[in-house]
Amino acid sequence: MAAPKKGRRPAGGQSRPGRALALILIAMVALTGGMFWSGHTTPRLGIDLAGGTSITLKAKAEPGQESAVNETNMNTAVGIIERRVNGLGVSEAEVQTQGRENIIVNIPKGTNEKQAREQVGTTAQLYFRPVLAVAAAEQPAPNPSATPSSSASPKPKASGATADKGKGKGDTTATPSASASTQGRAVSEALKAPSPTPTASSSASSKASTTPKPTQSGDAATNALQQKFAALNCLDPKQRAAAGQGVKPADPVVACGKNSLGQWEKYLLGPAEVDGKDVDDAKGVFDQQRGMWIVTMDFTGEGSKKFQKITGKLSQQTEPQNQFAIVLDGEVVSAPSVRQTLSASAEISGSFNQQSAQDLGNILSYGALPLSFDTQSVDTVTAALGGEQLHAGLIAGAIGLALVILYLVIYYRGLSFIAILSLGVSALLTYVIMALLGPAIGFALNLPAVCGAIVAIGITADSFIVYFERIRDEIREGRTLRPAVERAWPRARRTILVSDFVSFLAAAVLFIVTVGKVQGFAFTLGLTTLLDIVVVFLFTKPVMTLLARTKFFGNGHKWSGLDPKRLGAKPPLRRSRRQSVSAAGPVDTKEA
């Protein structure tokens, strides 16, 4: 007599369904607890459901550069604005072109909405320029022809600091400036010389005799710039805004900026030596040693070489020509003094708070816009229309869900109970994960995303139907329910995985190749497809295994949906096998 084999599992079987149910229960409890712990118990809503702000920007070209307003630059601007807004944690922001010269920015209502409105149209043109002269806001500029007895020394600049990794920080101590006469000659020499590097004031007189005599047009340009510097009143907002308009990076410029005391000063600056494209990364950080917020910048490889070259030259100069101005959109945000050669990084310090430092770091990190923009309109978008559409969509979804449940009840009877439970688990997981993804990655629920969730009802129900039909096929072959459940699972599992893979692949492709709201649909469709696999494997199959052990389902009750007579089942395989063996000869009853 052959001994019975112990511990043998049915083909494709799952001997311990309780483990899978415990695993999904723990996951549901953990996710739900995390949702309540985070304080975000509802998903974030997009602009069409929560309202927000719609901003219209119109591109403008600098004088003589009208061709700059083209499709390439507009698309570049759209990408930069979108990265800026998303960098602030404002998701589902729509940035798109309208016509040839307009950009529409739709920002959902949220905590960072105000910051996003301030940054979307900021040009963020960043330049590092050597300082040729600095004076108080209304102080007349030094005159090259003035005598020492009639001149006045400009106010020293109390500036921010530069820092170089591994080399310490730049000196911020202001030293007394040279006389107006000496400084004026230095300015003249710097403007006339072929190199943009400022000339040291201590050697200005000796170099004046060796400098080639400039042309009359060069003299006129130099005098015009100095007159503009002398006439500039930085206390006037209009003059501040117009100071650097239409000036090319390779030309000298006048600009305004605030010192560490919050007082306006005016600057005469040389040609740009480094620009924002040379900045690799920037961020606002808190300096523990000085107890202040600063903006740190790391340069690219080429930017480091440029920065090292200009700081090496400036470190040999005296005040104020050893300063370089960090000019952002025509305004001097900092003008540190240089005492040594720097290369790897720099920092901008000043009267920053946390928000302003982080905002500036965000702008510099994502780059400068290739065009300037005027804000044409700022409109508040209400959620009334989106609310009506959501209400209509939810009604459609409820009707669709009701029809699916009605079909399951009529056709599958008792099995519909398992399908409804599985749909409930899937809905709960979808809701909790959407609520958690809001603060985690900035996911916002919009109307297309709601449509994706409604479509997922059909995908999930399809997986149940595939499994149920495989079980019925096994019962029709004459097997009892428990072995039918286990033998049907491998076949159903392959079909479910292939079907969900195709759905997820379509969602992934749609998410990659589209923009805006359509991505919300694709993201939700992909998420619910993954959850369908989780629910079927960890909930539907284990529950079916447990219910197959009950009398209601195991004995094939007529309302169980698994009645062998109703399904047209064949005679049991075990009985037919015994009959065929008996016809062949005697059977060892003990071994049988």
What does this structure look like?
The protein has 592 residues and is α+β, with helices and mostly antiparallel strands. 49% of the residues lie in helices and 15% in strands. It has helices at 17-38, 47-50, 71-87, 113-119, 180-192, 204-210, 216-231, 237-242, 301-314, 354-366, 384-412, 415-441, 447-476, 481-513, 517-547, 551-554, 564-567, 573-584, and strands spanning 52-60, 94-98, 102-108, 126-136, 163-164, 168-169, 253-258, 264-269, 274-275, 279-287, 292-299, 324-328, 331-334, 345-349, 372-381. The strands form four sheets. Strands 4-8-7-13-12 form a five-stranded mixed beta barrel. The protein has a four-stranded antiparallel beta sheet with strand order 2-3-1-15. The protein has a three-stranded antiparallel beta sheet with strand order 10-11-14. Strand 12 (324-328) and strand 13 (331-334) form a beta hairpin. It is elongated and about 110 Å long. The relative contact order is 0.13.
